[in-house]
Structures are given as structure tokens and as C-alpha cells.
Amino acid sequence: MLTIGQFSKISNTTVKTLHYYDEINLLKPAKVDEYSGYRYYNIDQLDDMILIQKFKKYGFSLDEVKNVISNSNNNKKLINMIKEKRKKLKIKISESNYLLKVMEKDLNILEKGDNIMAYMDNIEIKINDFPKTNILSTRNVMNIEDYNKYVKKLFKRIEIEKLTITGPPMTIYYDEEFIPESTDTELAIPILEEVAGTRIFQPKTCVMAIHRGAYTELSETYAAIVKWIEENNYILSSAPFEIYLTNVHEVAPEDNITEIYFPIKSK
Q1: What is the pLDDT of residue 11?
Q2: Taking each helix axis from N to C terminus, what angle separates 62-70 and 45-57, rounded to the nearest 10 degrees?
Q3: What's the confidence (pLDDT) of residue 213?
């Protein structure tokens, strides 16, 4: 057996971390001396430690790593878990590459002596009457990272019940502040049929702008809309919403097209 110090040195993991892994039942020592309380580990537990380190590098949380350890002999489940993380990593890489392009563009603007924020004045703002729309939706207080999970459920139901999609998916935001971990959100897909879970969505007069680019830069278009609303003596009449004309999983971040709507009324 290995002492906790030996195990720490071989696995490049601090003793403090090993104590914590013991506390949360992620990796418990094989033996604890009943008198001294000293911890000992079996040689084969090094494999578990290496597996933990591997999946932490993949971006798994410790709770997710627990799931990995408990399913270490279930190849099918591990494959699905890794594929899901791979998809998220590819999105992050794509977003990072996009950010580098934006940085290069901004550097060129600054090096020419121009205003780096001048493009904000070129965001086109329009007023239109949003058409009466029948939507299949789900409203929950959710983490923004879970949006895709709920949208998939909506599309699955549409597939099973053979419903007719009439427009791109949308998100309606009800909170007054941005709380990414817990936000009151309605995810919706316009459909033809009126079935359980559908409702008529009719925000009427809206101010709208099209955002072309990564979702991480949506705040730029939001800021332009809010500024326009204030300058033109309007106020928000109901929850703002977004319509997604492209699929984030199918196009590069710079090719994303999102319509942003703010329902308005005169002051």
C-alpha cells in the first residue's frame, strides 16, 4: 500500500486535494489507521486518480467525475459523456477563434486612429408589428447552459406528434436582471397546430435589430436597442425575446444571425 504522501507524489495531487476527494466520496483511501487516522491507498487506485485527472482536463465537474468513476466499466455511457464534452469544447474553440478575429479587427481600427466603438452607430433599428404566432413552449427557471436540453425536448415532441413547424426557435426573457444560473425563460417553437402546451404569442409593436455574430456579443445589439428606445420616448411593454435564424451548432460564431425584439409602447 501507499501512504497518502507517496500517493500524492506519484499522482501529482496535493494531500489537501486527496483529503477533499475523501470527504466528497470521490476517491476514498483503501485504509485509514484507526489510531493515527493516517490514510493509505492501494496501487490500483492510481488508475482511478489518473481517470479523475483526465476527465477534469476534459472540463468535467467533480460531480460529473463521480458519475464517470461509477460508470468506468460502461463504455457506451462514457462514450456519450465524452462526446457531449467534445461538442462543448469545439464550441469554445470556435468562439475563441472568433474572438481572435474580432481582436485583430479592433486592432486594425485602432491603428488607423479610428473609434473602436463607431460600429455601434451602424446597428439598424426597426419598428414592426410582430405577427400573431402560435407557439409550443416551455417556461422554467433555468441555467442558460440547459437551454439546449429543453429545446431538444420540444423538437422531440414535434417529431413524435408530427407537428408542423412554422418558424425558427425563440427565447423569451422574463427576468429584469441577468442571472445566468437561474433565469426565468420561455423557450418556444412556432407550430401550426393548437395542442397541449401551445399558446398564442402576440407582442404587437416591437423595436427590432438583427445581430450578426457570436451570442457572446449580443449585449452590443441589446445596448443599441435600449438606447434607441430611450431616445425615441418609448418604454418596454412586455418581455424581450430572441429569434434564432441559424443553428449555433452548424455555423461559425461570426455567421450566427439572431433577431432581437423589444415590445414597446409610448411613454
Answers
A1: 93
A2: 130
A3: 85
pLDDT at res. 90: 86
Q: What is the pLDDT of residue 33?
A: 87
Q: What is the DSSP string of 117-154?
A: TGGGGG---EEEEEPPEEEEEEEEEE-GGGHHHHHHHH
Distance, CA of 3 to CA of 37 (rounded, Å): 12
Among the listed residues 197, 185, 132, the one whose alpha carbon sits nearest the alpha carbon of residue 160: 197
pLDDT of res. 154: 95
- Alpha helix segments (H runs only) across 193-236: 218-231
Q: Supply the pLDDT for residue 4.
A: 93
Cβ-Cβ contacts under 8 Å for 121 (sequence gap 6 or more): none
Give the up-direction half-sphere exposure of residue 11: CA atoms within 13 A in the CB hemisphere: 27
| Domain 2-73 CATH (choose: 3.40.50.1820, 1.10.1660.10, 1.10.1040.10, 1.20.58.100) | 1.10.1660.10
pLDDT for res 30? 93
The rounded distance, in Å, linking the Cα atoms of 164 and 153 is 15
State which residues of the chain have pLDDT below 70. Answer: none
Cell numbers placing 26: 470521490
Q: Which residue has the cell 466520496?
A: 25
Question: Which pLDDT does position 248 carry in this prediction?
Answer: 77
* Domain residue ranges of the chain, discontinuous segments joined by +: 2-73, 76-116, 121-266
Cell of 231: 431616445
Considering the domain 121-266, what is its CATH architecture?
A: Alpha-Beta Barrel (3.20)
